[in-house]
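Structure ticket #2291
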Amino acid sequence: MQITDEQAKAMTSAGLNLIAQALTIYDSNLKLVVSNAPFQQMFNLPDWLVTPGAPFEDTIHHLATRGEYGPVEDVHRFVTERTDQARAFKPHYMERTRANGRTISVEGSPLPQGGWVTVYTDITATKRQEALLSARSDALSDQVLAHTEQLAATNRELAAMITTLEETQRQLTASEARTRLTTQMMPAHIAHVDARGHYTFSNNKLSSVFPGRPSDIVGLHISTALGASAYDRIKPALSDAFGGISTLKEFTDDTSARRIRVAFTPDTLGGAYILSMDVTEETQTRVALQQTRKRELAAQMISGLAHDFSNLLTIILGMQSRIVRLPDVPPQALELVNGTLAAARRGGTLLSSIADVTGPRTQRPTATAPAAVLSDLATLAQPALPDGMTLTIENNAPDHAVLLDKGHVTDSLLNLILNARDACGATGQITVTQQVVNDTWIEWTVQDTGPGFSPTALERGIDPFFTTKGSEGGGLGLSMVYDMTKSAGGDLRLRNDEIGAHVTLRLPYRAALPATTGLALLVEDDGDIRATVRDMLMHLGHSVIEATSADEATALLADLPDIAMILSDIQLVGEATGLDLAQRNADRVPMLLMTSLPADSTLFRDGQRLAPVLRKPFTADDLAALITPVHEATP
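Resolution: structure written out below.
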């Protein structure tokens, strides 16, 4: 018969109640986890103080006011001192005489998961026997005295052994504390689960990697902590780890829309160690870099062909123009010549489109109000729609400025709307929706009431030159939207709904720096550049304080808590870099980075994951473009 968790808890409670000593276990937050009946009976405590979750300080306050510790002049101070001692989690043993004349021993020891266990023993009878033996020592025989001396020597040996054990325990506790501190400082979730899938260790970082999940998870089953959807994603890899195979899994968490990488390492007891990291920004940067490399390769391949094709078109246009100028050209021939000229000019337009696809399209994000994107889009799209077609635009995004290349975004959305128009014909409904997904993506969806994508279009719609419009289409519009999206680290998805086509465009959500004219910390080791950038910041209304290294900047941040923003070079003198400064402070102080490194540099890409990056040289307008304009700042 398999014992349930409730039955196991009941059996454990019954066993603890049979122990003669009183016992309590408190967690790291000084909340009661478990106690036995002798504990309540020994101190005559009310039920609410022996209920799991009861605060330690409430119990001490209750006992002090009832006289358990004798006269106490300042109860509040007494409770505070006892609580501070408890938080230290140090092993201890003590004996004290209670107000009722009974003597008890109190022995406490910290637990590996945090918190501590304490055992209380009534030693009144033992103390009385010791006093009786001492009083009658003169009447004891030499044999008894010798035996007593032997016992005393043994006790001294035991005391020395206990001291050694306590020192060993202290060292182990200190080592464990250092290990726990190290794991808690890492930007990842480190945990261990037993063979049944229950957490036995966690560095309390689960919620930082999987937003919305709990942090205190020791004892929980992994499926409960992660949720059904995420657990189903990692379950095969976890099963492999239980079978002794190290595995690596990367997936998108449905709840938070974050990209997660999880490594599983088996232990020797059938369980597994788990390392989870949020790689969303890394993935976005990697996707953007891959798209840039694809475009560079395409540009190299196409440039030569485009050059030769352009020369051929030039010859064709010249020859047809000469034919038109010949005397007595039949009207039928003129019609053919004009058709040839039109086709050649269309070929020239197509070459320009190819150049747009393969040429450099540098992303220039600026602080942009999401509502302004939709306002401009409606102004541009409405005149291009027939009278029988309705355009509905819904804005569900917060009114906070974000960093976007507004021109590229508007061009992409306009392209999607015009595609939807062509699919619907003369009448129909087009709906554009804008929203922010879990502070990870800013998302636009374009839906229409047309016939939807064909199976071939769903498969090849983003391929260059693929079109369903025949000779009317160049097949580059959706491909250019895809290119822009991927170059920015985003994603583009096509699907069909019950009523038509559905296109989802996602870009990384990066909030712009808030509008401010407060104190700015400028970190730059080149004096001339520092003077130039200082003038730019002052022109924007900032007061400026300067540092030449990350360590100097850290000291200033500690002394000056009112700094409104930081602008730091990535490469600085000393061992620490601007990236180190951003990692320490980006969550509490708005941060900008600057560099002269190329966009494909590892440091440049790492910087983009932490904060907006300005490429040197830049102007005051370039700097201002990354900061929320005052008239767009949220009150």
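Closing remark: Residues 470-476, 630-635 have pLDDT under 50 and may be disordered.
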